[in-house]
Amino acid sequence: MQKTRLGISVGLLGAAIYLSALFGGYVPLILLVGYALLFEENPWLKKSSVKAAVIMFSFDLLSTLIGFIPNVIEVINNIAGVFNSNFSTILIDKIMVVFNTILAISEKIIFIILAIKALTQGGLSIGFVDKVISKYMD
User: Fold this and answer.
1) Number of domains within the chain
2) CA-CA to 88 of 20 to 30 Å: which in 32, 60, 94, 120?
């Protein structure tokens, strides 16, 4: 079992990085990713830390893009209101809430699986994320 400079196993630090992405937000994640990239030598740990950041950013980006849809529809509704027309957004708002809920649940499941697999320095293949990491880190 390989140890980090902190004295804990590489897998445990990898799991901590994934869990910080899930529970801590960007500041703890960036600090841990920065530490892993600057001070640790293990290539699996470096890739895993970047993978956590890319996954977190991707989910936040998707959530933001989904959040734009009701805003665009509200603009259409306001324009229709100028012409004494009404455009209902209630159903679309409910659909967006469902999409955001599914996205949030998916993010939690992925990070929990990755954290568990990280304990044995394993991983979960996520197509586009792995391609981006391989392209820029190899």
Assistant:
1) 1
2) 60
Residue 5 within any structural domain of the chain: no
- Taking the alpha carbons at both ends of the chain, their separation in whole angstroms is 24
The confidence band for 74, taking pLDDT boundaries of 50, 70 and 90, is confident
Q: Using pLDDT thresholds of 50, 70 and 90, give the confidence band for residue 87.
A: low
Bridge partners, 128 (sequence order): none
Is residue 111 within 8 Å of 21, Cβ to Cβ?
yes
Residue 51 has pLDDT above 90, yes or no: yes
98 found inside a domain = yes
DSSP 5-26: TTSSBHHHHHHHHHHHHHHT-H
Under 8 Å between Cβ of 31 and 114:
no
State the Cα angle at 20 between 14 and 23, rounded to 5°. Answer: 145
Give a yes or no: residue 1 inside a domain.
no
The model carries a pTM of 0.87
In eight-state DSSP terms, residue 101 is: H
